[in-house]
Amino acid sequence: xxxxxxxxxxxxxxxxxxxxxxxxxxxxxxxxxxxxxxxxxxxxxxxxxxxxxxxxxxxxxxxxxxxxxxxxxxxxxxxxxxxxxxxxxxxxxxxxxxxxxxxxxxxxxxxxxxxxxxxxxxxxxxxxxxxxxxxxxxxxxxxxxxxxxxxxxxxxxxxxxxxxxxxxxxxxxxxxxxxxxxxxxxxxxxxxxxxxxxxxxxxxx
Length: 205
Known about the structure:
Layout: H1 2-8, H2 26-30, E1 35-39, H3 42-55, H4 65-74, H5 82-92, E2 98-102, H6 103-108, H7 110-120, H8 127-136, H9 139-143, H10 146-149, H11 180-194
Parallel strand pairs: 1-2
Helix pairs in contact: 7-8
Protein name: Sulfotransferase
EC number: 2.8.2.-
GO molecular function: sulfotransferase activity
């Protein structure tokens, strides 16, 4: 299990999680661990999540796009509401060592965002190392890398005939899914959900 793997790792350890802030063990903060959060705008997130649910055999079937969009807005999806997840981590960064990154910024200028991570971790990257990281962490390279694209998973876990795990990785792909009416309804709902929060996302580049 993941816990057994973590226990065998030597410090400093790196752990990846999808947990919302309130479910992270308190010991994590007591040890003053550093956290890097990557968040994506809600519209592209729901599109990506829809296709992920379509191809994942062990996930609840999403139904139609219209049905899944409503489930997303209602927070009735695995791992809970996108809104609570983002707000929780955004507010937590005021009290803990949290670097909050935006997917859209990473797509726009990966070099800049990688440098942010390096500074946060107290590292200095030589230019050649930085450029190698930019290349190897690009969507195109990761999409074709079996270590990142989950292509080694059997089809009874991930059905790649339905969708690839790494599908497009674009900013603004939501425009190919939302109707005008859905977009207007989503915007109104989003404003109500996120009104108290100062976080601001870009929905296109």
